[in-house]
Known about the structure:
The complex is a heterodimer of chains A (about 190) and B (about 800).
Chain A: H1 22-35, H2 45-49, H3 52-55, H4 60-66, H5 77-85, H6 92-97, H7 109-120, E1 127-128, H8 130-140, H9 147-161, E2 169-170, H10 171-177, H11 183-186
Antiparallel strand pairs in A: 1-2
Helix pairs in contact in A: 8-9
Chain B: H1 6-35, E1 43-44, E2 61-62, H2 64-89, H3 93-96, H4 99-116, H5 127-144, H6 148-153, H7 155-182, H8 193-203, H9 222-252, H10 260-292, H11 302-319, H12 324-342, H13 345-374, H14 383-409, H15 418-426, H16 432-439, H17 449-479, H18 489-509, H19 515-533, H20 541-560, H21 586-599, H22 619-640, E3 656-658, E4 707-709, H23 736-740, H24 747-761
Helix pairs in contact in B: 1-2, 2-4, 2-13, 4-13, 5-11, 5-12, 5-13, 7-8, 7-9, 7-14, 8-9, 9-10, 9-12, 10-11, 10-12, 11-12, 11-13, 14-15, 14-17, 16-17, 20-24
Amino acid sequence: RGPRHFNLELLPDAPPGVPKEGTDLLRLYHRFRALDRNKKGYLSRVDLQQIGALAVNPLGERIIDSFFPDGNLRVDFPGFVRVLAHFRPVDDDDSGMRDPKQPEPLNSRMNKLRFVFQLYDLDRDGKISRHEMLQVLRLMVGVQVTEEQLESITDRTVQEADEDGDGAVSFLEFTKSLEKMDIEQKMSIRILK
Amino acid sequence: MGFPMLVPFSPWCWLLLLVVLKCSEASSDLNKSTNSTAQHEPNVRFAAASSEADEKISVFALDYDYVQIPYEVTLWILLASLAKIGFHLYHRLPGLMPESCLLIIVGALVGAIIFGTDHKSPPVMDSSIYFLYLLPPIVLEGGYFMPTRPFFENIGSILWWAGLGALINAFGIGLSLYLICQIKAFGLTDVNLLQNLLFGSLISAVDPVAVLAVFEEARVNEPLYMMIFGEALLNDGISVVLYNILIAFTKMHKFEDIEPVDILAGCARFIIVGVGGVFFGIIFGFISAFITRFTQNISAIEPLIVFMFSYLSYLAAETLYLSGILAITACAVTMKKYVEENVSQTSYTTIKYFMKMLSSVSETLIFIFMGVSTIGKNHEWNWAFICFTLVFCQIWRAISVFALFYVSNQFRTFPFSIKDQCIIFYSGVRGAGSFSLAFLLPLSLFPRKKMFVTATLVVIYFTVFIQGITIGPLVRYLDVRKTNKKESINEELHIRLMDHLKAGIEDVCGQWSHYQVRDKFKKFDHRYLRKILTRKNQPKSSIVSLYKKLEMKQAIEMVETGILSSTAFSVPHQAQRIHGTKRLSPEDVESMRDILTHNMYQVRQRTLSYNKYNLKPQTSEKQAKEILIRRQNTLRESMRKGHSLPWGKPAGTKNIRYLSFPYGHPQPIRRDPKVADFTGDDSSDSELPSIMFKPYPRTGTLKKETQEIIPMKSFPRGGKPCHFGYPRNTSQEEHVGAGRREALRPKPLFHAVDEEFESGEESEEEASAGGSRWSAEHRPSKQYHRSHSPLLQRK
């Protein structure tokens, strides 16, 4: 199916927030096809791992994982778009007119935060345990930092966010600790508008 | 602000004194020598007692005349280099003012010394020397370091802005000044229209790249960066072309009866000169790329070829009165892509550094000369002319920026904001180009040349110092960054994580550009150009082994510092540490914050970075290596423990991890199992697997089997001034060659390291399930390389 015949029927049940305009979607489709080396019609981990820049990103593997939720081995185009939709810039007038009965758009602040949360929370138990935090910290920090320093930083991080004292950071606590940050701006990619 | 650089100041303060003494001594000798009539050594110190007519052999004599010019030139350059060292020692300075400031100050200093000691300065700068020797390196460097992809993506806007901007500025300033000159009160009525136009053209030659370093940390976005770069690149060329045309006009019609035919001819000449120059440049670029295809056995002449052909393109264009500047620029741009593939790594580094060095020398000399002529008696100060020049420069630049960008914004997908336009307006700093052109005005045609020179100097000083120093704060102000908020450790960590995440997703999205044209060009490039101009794949064995050696050192260090010990990645301790809520003192928190800020990995810079005077070392490369090494280790660890990979892949699948790119023959080469003995001796000849790369055919495509290829693309070359700005994503291209070639050089980098680790840890686990096998291809020929693996004392 060539790009010219591409139409929106491919995304029958796309949640709101997925871009529906023609050109952006087309570009994403081009990109999807370019990444899909064997023209399988879906992307596997290998395809994403071949993006060189991701290999030198400290969070490269986790980012790739986020494209394959629930242990899937493949991601098709709607799934691809769904993940990227989290990064659409937020239009200010979107939130005003939103119909409260519709599910939240994928690029809302809550959903963006949820996306980040699942980067930390590998076992999907809804909480970032101390160990998970430590692992993330280890990924992001250079080699000169000793283990003790990492541990104490982890302790401090969890301690700052943890309110109910269970030694782990739940999603609500996570959201609360970041309430002052401009998530919408940080997690928006201009070209996905 | 204080000047804590007083301490480093003192060593070269002494040197400065030495220089002064030398100069004054030289000048006094010079005076003596002009008085002597002897043909031979003028100064005879240890003369014989008898004063015979014929001279005795002098034991000690001084001949300064002989070496004067090179001696002084060398001293100047050395002085400027010392000043640069001092400048960079105080590391906040480069962010405060552009380096041109420093060069001007040094020039003024030298000028003061020369003036003070009444020394006759050597005739370094005259028209032919400037245009033949000093200008080409500067332009070549600009063209060579220009990032190609963003340039061509924005080429419409760049041409529109640079071309029309220069013209508008030149004619605008010229005409306005002419009107001013008509006013009798200022005493300028003898300056006619042509002279004013010429002055306008030379004063509109900006050098905005000089200020780039100042607001580099503001991370200007890529199109803005390209605008500034592109303008700097083309501006010189256009000014010189205009200058030459107007000089021709001035010579032709001394009495200002220029007919419209001449004007039309002038315009046509302008276009022909420009386009012709570019055409010449492209041809020479292709020729030189073609020649480098055959130089693999004599790689020492590769830099020579590159430089000579570029220079030749300049000279050839100048012969035909075409624009040499545009020719050399086009040559550099064309040549760069193919030459980089063909030449050896050392030649590549040599070319880059030598280019920087040459252009730096040229620019230094010009600035010093500028300083020399500042402090001299050859000035003519006319208040009206100078003030109005300054004023009109700013006004016309503002007009051209805002008008031209308003128009071009209509056609761009990502229009430039007002903030960007303000930055472009304010970065209109004049540089060495304007001064040179003013200095080389022929006195016969320009009786008031001194006034022009003075005015040019004032404009340069004003823009470089005042605009150069204030542009930093201005950009930071416009940037509206909340940097001074103290964030909690939590926030810092999460912010950095989100930055990485965003960078990663941006990489997944890839670069969006005008597909059609670019793809077409890429196809053409692959099908024809690349076949002709680049080498057939040859084993670059010397490079491979060199890289292996380099990488090994780092790998050794990493292991020895205990980073990659297996405990670092172990499963969580079963017994969780029981920690009460320790009350951490603020200092602890501070120190933690410090640790985080200094040690967290930087987000991959997607914006370009260019420094005119320096080639910055690659800090991100080290970071990338660490990340990759660590990643490999985790993968191997999890494999080894028999865990299924964290992402749920069953361990038994046929996931052959290849670390090299087994184009054509994905043979899983077995390693030699004898990896038992590791000595610390580098030269030990242990039976270790040899890593031999068969460089893949450039136009080949990957065999599409189920291979997991750990990608290592977009590894920057060491020392490349443009950082990861534009990963030429291979996944975007069907032809693997184009993208992978980026990784050709650094490929052994990574492979080597891992190989070493592998041999250390996995010797007993060759047959580990799921196999982290990787292919190292044997090459049972004379180029059999043994990899040294002195590594890996297991901690």
